[in-house]
Amino acid sequence: MSAVRGPITIALLGGGTVGSEVARMLLGNASDLEARIGAPVRLTGVAVRDVAKVRPGIPADLLTADAAALASSGADIVVELMGGIEPARSLILSAMAAKSSIVTANKALLAADGATLYAAAAKNDVDLYFEAAVAGAIPLLRPLRESLAGDTVRRVLGIVNGTTNFILTKMDEQGADYAKVLAEAQALGYAEADPTADVEGFDAAAKAAILAELAFHTRVTADDVHREGMSSVTASDIEAARAMGFVIKLLAVAERVDDGVIVRVHPTMVPRTHPLASVREAFNAVFIEADAAGQMMFYGRGAGGAPTASAVLGDLVAVARNLTSGGRGPRESVYADLPVLPVGDAMTRYYINLEVADRPGVLASIAQAFAAEGVSIQVVRQDGHGDDAGLVVRTHRATDGALSRTVERLRTLDTVKSVLGVMRVEGEATP
Amino acid sequence: MSAVRGPITIALLGGGTVGSEVARMLLGNASDLEARIGAPVRLTGVAVRDVAKVRPGIPADLLTADAAALASSGADIVVELMGGIEPARSLILSAMAAKSSIVTANKALLAADGATLYAAAAKNDVDLYFEAAVAGAIPLLRPLRESLAGDTVRRVLGIVNGTTNFILTKMDEQGADYAKVLAEAQALGYAEADPTADVEGFDAAAKAAILAELAFHTRVTADDVHREGMSSVTASDIEAARAMGFVIKLLAVAERVDDGVIVRVHPTMVPRTHPLASVREAFNAVFIEADAAGQMMFYGRGAGGAPTASAVLGDLVAVARNLTSGGRGPRESVYADLPVLPVGDAMTRYYINLEVADRPGVLASIAQAFAAEGVSIQVVRQDGHGDDAGLVVRTHRATDGALSRTVERLRTLDTVKSVLGVMRVEGEATP
After folding, report:
1. Does pTM top 0.90 for this prediction?
2. Which residues of chain A does B18 touch, with a Cβ-Cβ cutoff of 8 Å?
3. Radius of gyration of chain A (CA)
4. Domain boundaries A148-299, corresponding CATH code
5. Is A207 a catalytic residue?
6. Rounded CA gap, B167 and B173, in Å?
7. What is the average pLDDT score of chain A?
8. ipTM computed for the complex
């Protein structure tokens, strides 16, 4: 293919927080960008909903309301920052058909239909970069797509939602309840008025799907992800975790198992000595285990206009360099085509917090429930006595199916008054 | 330029631990690599010192003792894993002249003369990748070279030497002396019989030079790096750090200042809440601050055959993809050409531990020494009394020059019996 000579033209779809910041950085850092790319860049237009609105740093004559025309205008690079599935998908596909390379931050679209975009990029021989779609400014997808391209990824553990990590950090620091901390997070702008997408794990599940698709070269959509939110985590769960040397994080877990892939999002107990445990407030981090490289972690700002814009600019520079050299970036495909297996097949450990009767034979009956499902107990701790007797159990590794069946058995025992808490445990040294 | 069709040919210089592992991964993962690259790869030869030695996983007919002939054989990619400055530099330059792209892990060469390699790669229009040269398997250089290409890096703080981090971790955990822990590290294979390159900071200084050159697009060699080793760190320094909520790390610091660049390696006190504080044992991590992206950290295995081989393979796949698509990876240059300034110009904070006389006016005379150099005190703590009086001071930010002149003034005071410890403090929130 022929290399572009002369300026690299860029069309921007979306003029919100991130789009405006990208436009400002493109216009403001032009000479640095030219030095790094080897050619000047030229912004040809910014598609916005309201062309009458003044956007500081963006010349008014670049604004247009006709996104479709701008998308298919044949710019060297089309940057899609509108979000949502449609019309973003149609605009990206029409841009690729016009031989434009794509930079996007569109998490929802990639999680719903990444494979279609991968295939269209390959068919039209254009680049598709989307670093900003997962974990904002953290350069994470590039290492996964490129640095680890010669290795085999086994497992990805991510704190990929800043809102829930902020809430869990404050609950841990203050011993406060979920509701109180959520209100504080909303007041500070870390949580939306309707926090469902964050606290129920929808946002993390979309990111988990994108990570799993890249890590395992297998089609994974947000609907394939087992999802449990963190709104039911209580101050006493966090206190119990602390007493055992753990913190609670909302983790996205994507793992390769013998015959497939399992992807899940749920509150998780993590040892305080694990690198993910020290990821605080609204920061994100993704921990990766690969056969040869071993354990790695990537940490940084997961959201915000400037960090996300930085990730978009990094992608823009990479695509522009490819264009000036006549090359192409990494091609993704779902060639491995592994089955996505149910969460019941995952190997994990449980923490189980029980209120029990205080009489002879209680521990024996409970131990019997674990044994019946072939689940081995790692730690058991009995607190108090009389009517308040509490029993905390941490298990060894077993399938999630066997562990959840064990919990169902415990619920039926007359020695168990109630199951106060159940949570998966990740990040301990195996087994 | 034309894209390569048919197999990508690879010549390997060096058959040591990493070289053998790379050869085995190339031969063993061939079908996966072909899927990811879009073309098969073929290993054409492995240059070794002793062709008679059996190397499991490498067919004997690939071995050659003639590194010069293999380097200039015109393979698509030459992988240099011999280490050292010569003959590695000459071999790489002759390979580039034969239009071979280069993958290398050669830290010493890049730290001594990276700019020559950058220029030769540009002149010959070939790729030069060297992810494995710094922090082993951690995908760090690729983000720095590519993801942050549209941003401005201000500061890089790195734990880039696993041996010294292992020693400092054990000293912190066990309260043990340097000499005892060094002996343990040597027994475990984490430290060499002659540990000078690690404990005196030479290894970290080489990596700091490479990071600074990439981050600031400015020629920085190992000789430009202000270097202080960690062999003088005592158990009581670590105890004092712990009492204040800090840990001691050997940090590589590369920073952009108003009118230049400063690069330094020295033992440093870091707050326990800082992400670098939780990097334990032989792990490495690099913390980066950029204008738009904010704070980021990259964590993983800094050394070892398999992790380093993973990084080399990732580079190999990237270069091979560039070759199949007809493109080129990022070009480095030292275009910014900033001056490298002396450590005295760096803004930092000091921790100073003094044994003082216990009589009226001592604190006043000490405070006067700080004031005379314009250094502001952040925390002062007086311990004990009588002959054992100790005074610990942490300063606010000041130039390293003013801080070290303050220490010289303290040494001359008759109220100061001795200066027990002086260490820089990094990673606190400014100012």
Report:
1. no
2. none
3. 24
4. 3.30.360.10
5. yes
6. 10
7. 91
8. 0.81
**Cα(B36)–Cα(A334) distance, integer angstroms:** 11
Please name the residue that has the structure tokens 């929130």. Answer: B429
| In chain A, domain spans | 8-137+305-325, 148-299, 346-425
Whole-number pLDDT of residue A431: 45
Contact A321 B330 (CB under 8 A): yes
Residues counted in chain B:
431
User: Average pLDDT, whole number, for chain B?
Assistant: 91
Classified as helix, coil or strand, A5 is coil
Is pLDDT of B131 > 50? Answer: yes
Residues of A in contact with B152 (CB under 8 A): 29, 32
pLDDT confidence of B430, banded at 50, 70, 90? Answer: low
How many Å apart are CA A271 and CA A425, to the nearest integer?
8
Cα distance from B401 to chain A (closest Cα, Å)?
A: 32
Kindly provide the b/e burial profile for residues A384-418, where b requires at least 16 CB atoms within 10 angstroms of the residue's own CB.
Answer: eeeeebbbbbbbebbbbebbbbbbebbeebebbbe
Residues 31-50 in B contacting A (C-alpha not used; CB under 8 Å): 32-33, 35-36, 38
pLDDT at A147 over 60: yes
Q: Which CATH superfamily is domain A8-137+305-325 in?
A: NAD(P)-binding Rossmann-like Domain (3.40.50.720)
Residue of B146, B295, B316 to mutate, testing the A interface (most A Cβ within 10 Å of its Cβ)? B146
What CA–CA distance (Å, rounded) separates B300 from B305? 14
Interface contact flag, A273 B280, Cβ < 8 Å: yes
The two three-digit tokens of residue B167, written as one number: 């020693």
CATH fold, domain A346-425, is Alpha-Beta Plaits (3.30.70)
Give the per-residue pLDDT at A326.
77
A122 to chain B, closest Cα gap in Å: 11
Asked which of A141-150, B22-31, B241-250 is least confident by mean pLDDT, the reply is A141-150
Contacts of B317 in chain A (CB under 8 A): 146, 149-150
Whole-angstrom Cα distance, residue A167 to residue A281? Answer: 7
Domain at B149-300, CATH class: alpha beta
Amino acid at residue number A197: A
User: What residue type is A10 in one-letter code?
Assistant: I
The beta-strand segments (E) located in B169-278 are: 226-227, 246-257, 260-271
Give the residue from A333, A410, A429, A324 showing the smallest Cα distance to A367. A410
Higher pLDDT, B145 or A354: A354
Residue B3: its pLDDT value, please? 56
Q: Exposed, middle or buried: residue B273 (CB in 10 Å: 0-12, 13-18, 19+)? A: middle
* Partner A, chain B 250-309, Cβ-Cβ below 8 Å: 273, 275, 277-280, 283, 285, 290-301, 304, 306-307, 309
**H/E run at residue B31:** helix B30-37
Q: Are A41 and A30 in contact (CB under 8 A)?
A: yes
Residue B263 pairs in a beta bridge with B254
Tokens of A415: 């020695």
Question: Choosing from A99, A207, A249, A417, which is the catalytic residue?
Answer: A207
β partners of residue A391 = A354, A382
Q: Residues B61-71, buried b or exposed e (16+ Cβ, 10 A)?
A: ebbbeebeebb
Contacts of A367 (CB under 8 A, 6+ apart): A377
Please state, in angstroms and rounded to a whole number, the distance separating the CA atoms of residues A380 and A299.
34
